[in-house]
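Morning run. Coffee first, then this:
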Amino acid sequence: MARRTSGGEPAPDGRSGSDGQDRASTRDRILDISLELFIEQGYDKTSLREIAERLGYSKAAVYYHFPSKEDILMALHMRLHQVLEQALAGLAGEESTPDTWARLLDAFIDQMLANRQVFLLYERNRAAFEQIHEKGHEGNHQDLEEQLRQVLADPAIALRARVRIACAFGAIASGVILSGDAFTAVPSDELGALLRDAVKDLLA
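And here it is:
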């Protein structure tokens, strides 16, 4: 059984088994609640105390998993990295062909839509994310972007197809990220269908 803090909330020790599962569950719950609050009232205006209160935990329990509010923001930001990492991983071990890219882009849409709230967080708290980049995180972005550029430079695929693939990536990103609040009221399944139509037109 997972250990508990004095306030009754879980404070797992990270060992394998149920304790490790509880720790991951608690960590994800802290991130999800923080995401809600950062979107509702802004990163700068949200305190760790408010996050703990929304969770029903003590502030010490939140500190157990995240030493600072910035650590929470970084963990949420890494969810965005995982989207591109998963997309690039979809090409691993497969021949780079237009059909492979079509499947990858389809999965990319699902991954982007699953993280719609995190992208909305980014749009509403750009200044906070810029501070993360200023502290040396920008190199991670450059590495991912370079991987994508290398894949798109593959001469095994016709230039026309590579340009259309690049445009398709841009269309998906625009539909989910650059649109900001424009499509927040559109259900994910409906937006996903429209994005797939756009990608299909670009790749045709």
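Residues 1-8, 11-17 have pLDDT under 50 and may be disordered. Good start to the day.
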